[in-house]
Each structure stands twice: as C-alpha cells, then as structure tokens.
Amino acid sequence: MKPRIFDAHCDTVFELQEQKKELNRNDLHLDLQRMEEYEGYIQVFAAFVDQKSICGTCMNHCIALLERMHREIEKNSKQITLIQTAEDLEEVIEKQKIGAVLSIEGGEALEGNLAALWMYYRLGVRLITLTWNHANEIADGITQSRGGGLTDFGRQAVAAMERMGILIDVSHLSVKGFWDVAEMTQYPFVASHSCVKALCPHPRNLDDDQIDLLISRRGGIGINFFPEFLTQRPDCIIQDILRHMEYILCRGGDETVGLGSDFDGVEALPADMTGVQDMGQVVQAMLDYGFTQNQVKNIRFENFRRIFHETMRRSM
Length: 316
Fold this sequence. Notes:
Elements: E1 5-10, H1 12-19, H2 32-35, E2 41-48, H3 58-75, E3 80-82, H4 86-95, E4 98-105, H5 115-122, E5 125-129, H6 152-164, E6 167-169, H7 175-184, E7 190-191, H8 208-216, E8 220-223, H9 227-230, H10 238-250, E9 257-259, H11 279-289, H12 293-312
Parallel strand pairs: 1-2, 2-4, 3-4, 4-5, 5-6, 7-8, 8-9
C-alpha cells in the first residue's frame, strides 16, 4: 500500500467534462483506480474558470463543473467521499478512503455577487483561488500588466470567505493582491499550486517575502509539478520538485510546504512522472533526498490536513 496523500490542486474535473471521460478510470493524470492504491488520498478538485475561453457565463460554467463532480462522487460513492466539514475530513482519514474537497479556480465565478459565495458553499466549495491569470471582479491576476490588488468587492469577498470557512488561495494572484490578502486576513491562507521564484523566475512563483509570510502565518504552499515552474533547464525530473520543497524547508517551512500537483491542469510533468500513480515515487524520493520522516509526513499529508481542518471548523 502506498503512503497517504493530500494534494491541494488538480484540474481533472475540467478534463472529465471536456473529454467526456469518467473519474473511476481514464487516461488522464488522475483516476480513482490509481488513487485506491494509496493508504487514503485526499484531493482538492478545482472547477477551473477562465472567462476568456468559455462559452456562456462564468457562473454557469462553474456550476456545471461542480455538478459534474457531484455526479462522479455519487456514482462512485463506495470509493470516494465529499468532504465538507472537519468531521468529514477526519472520518475519511480514519477509514483510509479517497476524499474530495471541491474548489473553484477563478473568482470570476462569483460574477461580482457576494450571495454567490453562499451558493457555492452549499454546493460544497471549501477553497477559492481568487484569480486565474487575468483580472476579475476580485483582483488582478499575475499576468495583468497593471498589477492591481484587491478591489472593494474583492475585500468583501475575502472577508466573507474567512467568516464562512472557505480557504483563500493566492496562486495566480498579483503580487499586490497577495499582500492585500495578507494585510486584511487573520487566518492561514494558501498558495495551493505554486513554486519558488528564487529557483525558477517564473511570474507564477512566490518570492522569498511571500514564502516567509506564508510560513509565519502557518499557511500552505503546494508545490506545482509543472516543469516550467520548476526549472529553466530543458529537462525536468522529480528531484526538481524536491529542490523547491527543500528551499521552503530551509526557511523554516516544515509546517507550510505540501503537494499541489496541478494534475490535468498542466501540459507536461517531470520526465519521470506520468500521473497520480507516481506520488509514491515522489514520497520515496523525499526520503532518499534526506528529508526527515516527520518532514515527509507533513509534506505529503499533515500540513494541508491541518489547514483544511482549521478552516472547516469555522464553517457555517
């Protein structure tokens, strides 16, 4: 049996919808058959919303993806459980089952309406990535050249998310937006699928000040497996993932760094990976690299378990 895993981000539900595939078994990066090989697996499934590439409204698109994920969970209820509360989380862990946490990647799904937060909460959403790469009603994304921070609506939305127990995710957010979130929040927040800018100077990666802030706030950083975020070399291997983990650990991030694979949301993986079946290989590589048993346990599971547990305890 492979080790227990908590992965803070994948885009599998989007690909299931687009390619008309099934969660139980498919040829994507992730399916239930391969996840069942682990001693429990908790996956955050993102409903990806990019306003520049979808037909119809952002809200309708998002609801359709969430509805698809609900149908997949119901259809495979013996294998996977929807996690909506801290109690759900602990029960899934105790039973060593697969657990699904629903999230939204792209706050344009709210369409500037705070009431939409209540609706998404009732649909099971427990994390929202405030922006994708572009600007929306909440803030500017990282590719927006003006680099604006949170809007007035964005501040209201972030405050409401903290009250409701919806985890705030700053991956893809502008640098100004990151610091606005840091200034106005009191609870831990996360960068669910981001890497280290000092090791790979991609705009999507976090600088040292951002990393240190997340460490000091006991937030989370899920290391993304996309080669363009990991290295500037033409080749990329699992060891490059470990370099980013090690960098954060060396800054005191034992309780911060975790997994944020971005499965089915990236065009490529490291050369020695093909999907979720290789998560055990990543864990073994951490041990071979010299990480302590406790560090490995935190990275592969405990850090995001703590953050989600604490967030869900604030749920309405």
